[in-house]
Amino acid sequence: MRIVIAEDDALLREGLTLLLTARGFDLVAAVPTPEEFLAAVAEHRPDIAVVDVRMPPTFTDEGIRAAVQARRLHPPLAVLVLSAYVEQSFAADLLADGVGGIGYLLKERVGRLQEFLDALHRVVAGGTAIDPEVVAQLFTHQRAIDVMRPLSPREREVLALMAEGLGNTAIAERLFVTDKAVHKHIRNIFLKFDLHPTDQTDRRVAAVLRYLDSRTPSRP
Amino acid sequence: MRGVAISDNRGTSPRDVFEAVERLAGGLGTSLLALFTSAGLIVVAAASLAGVGLLLLPFMLSLVRLVAERERGRLNRWQYQVISPYADTRPTGWAARLRAAASDPATWRDLRWLASHASLGLLLGLAGVVLPIIAVRDASFPLWWWLLPIEEAGASLGFPVRTWPAVLAVSLMGISWAAILIGLGPAMARLQALPGVRLLRPHPSADLSQRIAQLTVTRASALQAHAAELRRIERALHDGTQNRIIGVAVLLGVARDAVVRDPAGAEAALERAQSAAEQALGELRTVIRGILPPVLEERGLAGALTSLAADCPVPCEVTVAELGHLPVAVETTAYFIAAEALTNTARHSRATTAAVSVNRVGDLLSVHVRDDGIGGAAVSAGSGLTGIRRRVEAHDGTITLTSPIGGPTVLEVELPCAS
């Protein structure tokens, strides 16, 4: 797996480099600015980019914008965004193209190595990996509650775990139910969100997107 | 502030009489200006009816302001404290100037004052100047009447005086002029000043609305300073401390991963994690010091300033008078002003010595920071000085910066500190 890292903090860049090379990943570039990141992606065509949200010059959302641009220029680039804080609109921005291969994790998750590596693999495989913290915050928002209203409590739980990026089996294990039951719940979610099998976009991603988008009524 | 009451129960001393005469004479000067300006205004107003005077109107109104400002200056010299009521903005263009003048209540109050001072003020001023002259002339009449040609003597009585009783009568009249002056002089002077004191000050409501406007501005800058401060703290915590701690978490993950496979690598990662944790603590201390220096709480303003001076690369002398109890906000502001000023001194001034002194007079805390550097500092030039200004304005204080090219630079700040 070929990886490009964009992270302005030297310590974290070093930590990520240590960690990924120790595990035998092919780390082709680790750069501190959005410009160098875009150049590195163009040059190396990695499988996945790991990008920090706040980067120079303004330290706001440069990383998100660079990631969105890199995905547009070099599809199907998978992107795993690392952030020091929870901001759902960033995740929704990334998912807006309706294509999978997106992750949004809090930075400290990198320390939980196995979970971090699982997330990397899931995102490269075209899935999603949304931080449980982001997912948890969704339920506190009125509009999210409105969007979720047609879903049963169990279906909401399933959708939340889908957003984190878990597969059917993993969801079944987490909820102590059978694979078949999970499959039924997911079918019901697609039905209630009006997502048909004929749609071009990945229905799992579309459902997650609907869920995330409900959290952000006014995106800039 | 001196009151405007006409009656005054104090006895009248010779000094009061001289002062009254001086004031009436000064008032005579401005009342003559008011008279000429009124005459000019009448001419221009009449010409305006024919159209041609309209062009001169803004000029005449400026002239009225000039005369009014002169009277304000005169009244201020006599401690009446008459501040200018005019709006700060000066529009350009004939129509805009006229519109602005017409909508400013101060213009109409100026015109009322002009009329009153050109009439009543003029008469009182003339009386004030003429009374002492004729009092002296008539009172001293017995000394020199015999020098006059026979038909000229006794002019103040209106008929020739040839006998001693008549001469004494003239002298008595002079004494009564003096008595009138002594009795009424101070009251006349106050009466002459009265229209100016009443009309040339900002209208009481304007005074309040100005104050409200000023408070709105200072409140806005206090909020702005507050927001900037929060942003600075957030940035420092996020880019420094938080990133260090995330680094610790990541490096601990690396170490755990390597502990069996590669013990030496794990040791190296733990070493890096430990130093990152220490860095995080160091940065946290810096942030805390920037919010509220612990030294201020532990050792008070004097101790905090002394340690500030000890850290300053430019040799710095600190003098702190007995300050009594100060509100924490004022103390903190005084500390940050000194800190910011000394930082500027160290960075830009090339000074060889600096001095900080803090004094308290009543409910006013003054902070002076001086250095012998190259000068040329300006509040607008450096964000540091702008920060000081915002902090000072938030306290309703005043700030004066003198920094000529070539130095020295002196920053004087006064902060109200009633607790």
UniProtKB/TrEMBL annotation, chain A:
Q: Which SMART domains match?
A: HTH_LUXR (SM00421), REC (SM00448)
> Entry's PROSITE patterns?
HTH_LUXR_2, RESPONSE_REGULATORY
- Which residues are in the Response regulatory domain? 2-122
Q: Does the entry feature the keyword Plastid, yes or no?
A: no
Q: What species is this protein from?
A: Streptosporangium pseudovulgare
Domain HTH luxR-type: start-end pairs: 144-215
An example molecular function term from Gene Ontology annotations: DNA binding
Give the protein name, as stated in the record: DNA-binding response regulator
Identify the keywords attached in UniProt to this record, alphabetized.
DNA-binding, Phosphoprotein, Transcription, Transcription regulation
Q: Which InterPro entries match?
A: CheY-like_superfamily (IPR011006), NreC/VraR/RcsB-like_REC (IPR058245), Sig_transdc_resp-reg_C-effctor (IPR016032), Sig_transdc_resp-reg_receiver (IPR001789), Tscrpt_reg_LuxR_C (IPR000792), WalR-like (IPR039420), WH-like_DNA-bd_sf (IPR036388)
Give residue numbers for the modification (4-aspartylphosphate): D52
**Which top-level group of life is the source organism from?**
Bacteria
Automatic annotation (TrEMBL), chain B:
**Which EC number(s) does the record attach to this protein?**
2.7.13.3
Q: What is this protein called?
A: histidine kinase
Recorded hits in PANTHER family, A to Z, give:
NITRATE/NITRITE SENSOR PROTEIN NARX-RELATED, NITRATE_NITRITE SENSOR PROTEIN NARQ
Q: Where does the chain cross the membrane? A: 41-68, 120-146, 166-189
Which of the seven top EC classes does this enzyme belong to?
transferase
Ranges for the Histidine kinase/HSP90-like ATPase domain?
329-419
Native organism taxonomy = Bacteria, Bacillati, Actinomycetota, Actinomycetes, Streptosporangiales
According to the UniProt entry, its GO molecular function terms are:
kinase activity
| Record key words, sorted | ATP-binding, Kinase, Membrane, Nucleotide-binding, Phosphoprotein, Transferase, Transmembrane, Transmembrane helix, Two-component regulatory system
Q: Please indicate if the UniProt record lists Transcription as a keyword.
A: no
Q: Which reaction does it catalyse?
A: ATP + protein L-histidine = ADP + protein N-phospho-L-histidine
Q: Which Gene3D superfamilies match?
A: 1.20.5.1930, Histidine kinase-like ATPase, C-terminal domain
